[in-house]
Amino acid sequence: MNKKKLAVIGANEFQNPLILKAQELGYEVHAFAWEAGAVGETTADVFHPISIVEKEAIWEECRAIGIEACCSIGSDLATHTVNYIQRKLGKPCNPEITDTVATNKFEMRRAFEAAGVACPGYRCVSAAPSEAELAGMRYPMIVKPTDRSGSRGIFKVSDYAALCAAVPQAIESSFEKRAVIEEYIDGPEYSCEGISFEGKHHILALTKKFTTGAPHFIETGHEEPSDIPLEAQEAVKAQIRRALDALQIRYGASHAEFKLTPEGEARIIEIGARMGGDCIGSDLVYLSTGLDFTAMVIDAACGREPDLTPKRAPAKASIRFIFTREDREALDALRRAAPDTIWRAECDEDALSEAVTDSSNRHGYWITAEPL
Questions:
Q1: pLDDT exceeds 90 at position 326
Q2: Which of 67, 27, 94, 16 is nearest to 300 (CA)?
Q3: What mean pLDDT comes out for the span 45-55?
Q4: Which of 30, 132, 206, 283 can bridge 279 by disulfide, Cβ–Cβ 3.0-4.6 Å?
Q5: What is the rounded CA–CA span in Å between residue 180 and residue 106?
Q6: Sheet containing 252-260: which strands, arranged edge to edge?
Q7: pLDDT at res. 1
Q8: Where are any strands of DSSP class E within the chain?
């Protein structure tokens, strides 16, 4: 019997768990990406060297080979192509407006504001603004590209001179050459991983985030379960569900980043209509809850109700990223002291002397799982 064919948009190491899961579920996997030596080029059943943004070319290939459904994990850029292919196939996906409001930080703020979801003061600019244009906003502020992820082009600024220096750099990192300026929200940072089907939002996990802090806030690690008190979690989840509705997310994975105020209220930073990157969705959710999030993404794309049955006992799960040789040595020490806690580890030995400037050029990571 011929296998059903699944298209995966992207082929890097963060897409590879999706490729492997689809194969485990019996699909013939067709991966689409630039040919760049990525792991998915060899693990996929068929690799198509087409850029993930060339949605028309990808559609022609999908139509020719009889693709069942299309999906991706952890990539904002890929969601445009995924939804385009899903619409062509007549498969479940989010409305076209979600392609914009869930990937453009300015349009996202406007959607939140229109729906009454609490958010900080903000402005969208294509050049350094005048002080008058910032009237009513308070320092410190965050400057970032409207349409990038992975900590690219993000700056925390405390005065007008620093803001004017940061804005051109954020604009240069933007695809559309615009930046959003937001009032800084103080408090610990978290994310929320969810799956939606026919407009019903299932919250799978709350994740504690660790970063380098100002000025660029590059993620250094993540941990599940989070340290949010149980009595505060329902209010947090309710706020996230309102934000998902504001973005009209009805199908598939979601990754909401938020901070908690001293009063315990969630303030949404941004939401992606996709699984969280950094192995949060593909590994940490499974390890900490037993829920197979990656399989749920495939189920939703194929029009099936996601299976919310735990597949393993829950654990304390974390990922730590390698920035320096000292981090690499910490991984070596863990391998000696507690090798059974390591779920997976990767390190680019040749890059350890290079500086990390954003999430895309960290030198590796290790994932651990320990009994609760």
A1: yes
A2: 94
A3: 97
A4: 283
A5: 6
A6: 266-272, 252-260, 189-197, 200-211, 219-224, 315-321, 364-371, 342-347
A7: 61
A8: 5-9, 28-32, 46-48, 67-71, 122-125, 141-145, 155-157, 179-183, 189-197, 200-211, 219-224, 252-260, 266-272, 315-321, 342-347, 364-371
C-alpha angle with apex 121: 117 to 125, nearest 5 degrees? 115
For residue 39, give Cα distances in angstroms to 14, 47, 328, 371. 9, 11, 22, 30
Contacting residues for 6 by C-beta, under 8 A, at least 6 apart: 22, 27, 28, 29, 30, 67, 68, 69, 70, 71, 298, 301
| Structure confidence at residue 214 (pLDDT) | 80
Contact criterion met (CB below 8 Å) for 15 and 44? no
Residue 204 is which amino acid?
L
Neighbours of 115 (CB within 10 A): 14
pTM of the full structure: 0.91
CA dihedral 156, 160, 162, 168 (to 10 degrees): 90
Q: Which tokens in the block code for residue 326?
A: 């000292």
Asked whether residue 13 carries a pLDDT value surpassing 70, the answer given is yes
